[in-house]
Inverse folding.
């Protein structure tokens, strides 16, 4: 086999090795309290053993892109994440992010932090009572699977199923992806 034919294999192996190194050397797993839910894919976490706001940080869920709060299905996506990670909706309502205190709710919140994004948010996977939040939102049809930024096959198949079964945002004939909506509606 010539070197040119082997280039895709070499690239794949190199990318896999880099991913393994990044995941094993930078992944940080911990137990947290969700103190704020901004939208369906961004939360504020505080380590469970801390009572200080200075220890809080934003987590952007990987492998999904949820509708923005003011976009169709944005509030439903946010409410679903609140319900999953809080057990109930906060009594506060309005356009601002809902502040939540869950230490008495007995919900186990774990996160695996894998990187930081250009906005200095932690990027990672969030689980609430052993339920993967990204997968949960996609299964309900309340988040998109961004092919460009994810290779998670389980979430990909869940997104196809939600679309086929016309769940959540897929009940619309032409739902607008969040990345397209953001281009048209400046924050």
């Amino acid at each position: 086999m010539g070197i040119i034919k082997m280039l895709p294999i070499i690239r794949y192996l190199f990318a896999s090795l880099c991913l393994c190194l990044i995941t094993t050397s930078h992944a940080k797993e911990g137990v947290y309290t969700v103190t704020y839910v901004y939208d369906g894919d961004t939360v504020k976490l505080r380590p469970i053993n801390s009572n200080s706001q200075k220890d809080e940080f934003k987590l952007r869920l990987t492998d999904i892109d949820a509708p923005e709060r003011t976009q169709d299905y944005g509030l439903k996506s946010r409410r679903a994440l609140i319900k999953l990670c809080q057990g109930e909706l906060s009594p506060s309502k309005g356009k601002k992010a809902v502040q939540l205190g869950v230490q008495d709710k007995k919900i186990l919140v774990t996160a695996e932090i894998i990187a930081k994004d250009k906005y200095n948010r932690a990027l990672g996977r969030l689980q609430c009572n052993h339920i993967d939040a990204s997968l949960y939102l996609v299964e309900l049809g309340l988040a998109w699977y961004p092919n460009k930024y994810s290779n998670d096959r389980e979430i990909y198949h869940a997104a196809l199923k939600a679309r086929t079964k016309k769940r959540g945002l897929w009940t619309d004939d032409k739902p607008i992806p969040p990345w397209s909506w953001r281009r048209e509606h400046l924050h």
Residues 26-184 form a domain with the OB fold (Dihydrolipoamide Acetyltransferase, E2P) fold (CATH 2.40.50.90). The longest helix spans residues 3-26.
